[in-house]
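Following the same procedure, sequence and fold were stored together, as reproduced here.

>
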Amino acid sequence: MAVAAVVAGPVSMASEEWVCPLLGVDPDAFNHDTEEFSAIAATLMRHNAISETLSTRPESFEPLFVRSPDGEVDPQPWCMGFYAVMKLRLLVWSRLLPPNGTEHLMLRPILVHCIDDAGRPLLPPARRTLGTQPIIQNAWRNIPATVEALRQFWMPIRFKRGA
């Protein structure tokens, strides 16, 4: 979900910058012991857990996808959360957005499940296939590796020495 985009993304973000839009709370909620603060604390604990996992055991990272009663995976809510965080700093993420760039391929397993504000697929139909095979059906299986690849890609920029 959105928390993985914060951990694996190109820049560090203040908690209030991403938690407030994610949970729909006012920044003042960070200062009061309320249900909203409990949700904030749980979200920040998830952030820390993802960060720890990606730092120490990236191969064990597992996104928490929604599942139907019969066990089918629905990656769209997770991917839309990831994309929502990307949109908070879209200019910084823009290096990966040109569809003809090789770096864009890293985002495809996520973006293939996203829709724009009008409800249209974020990737045009031509970008939803690899050769002649549709990539949407099993793209969610590549998301754990995608998150780690994004983290590795951004790490030199995000953690520059002396910055």
